[in-house]
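Retro notes, item 3 of 5
We never archived the inputs for the zinc ion complex last cycle. Fixing that now. Sequence and ligand:
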Amino acid sequence: MGELDEQTCFDAALKYGRLRRWCWRCFFGMLILIVLLYLAAVAAHAFQLDLNRKVRGGLFSLFALGWLLCWMGCMGSSIALKNFRCPRCRKRFTLKRCWGWAGNRCLHCQLDLGPSAITKAHAEVDL
Ligand SMILES: [Zn+2]
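Structure as it came back at the time:
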C-alpha cells in the first residue's frame, strides 16, 4: 500500500462525491416523480377532470420517461460507486454486497474520501 499524493486523493474525493450525489439525486427523483404521479391522479379524481385519453397517455408517458431516466441514473451511478477503486489500496472502495449505501471510508484501508477530505485538501492547498 503506497502513499498517496494530495492531488490524487482530492481528485478521487471529488469523483466519489459526484457519483454519490448523482445516486442520491436520481433516487430522490424517482420518489418525487412517484409522489407527483400519485398527487396528479388524486387531483384529477378530486376535481373530476375528464382528460381525454391522449392527454392522459402523454402525461403518464412523461412521468414514466422521467422515472426511467432517474432509475437509469441511479443504477448507473450505483454500479460506478460499487466499482470505484480506492486510490490508495486499489481495491473496491465500498459496498461488499449488492445493496447498501456507500460510505465515506474505504472498507480496506480506511481512507476518507468524504466532504472532510475535500475540505482538508482545500485548506492544505490554501496554506
Ligand atoms: Zn483503500
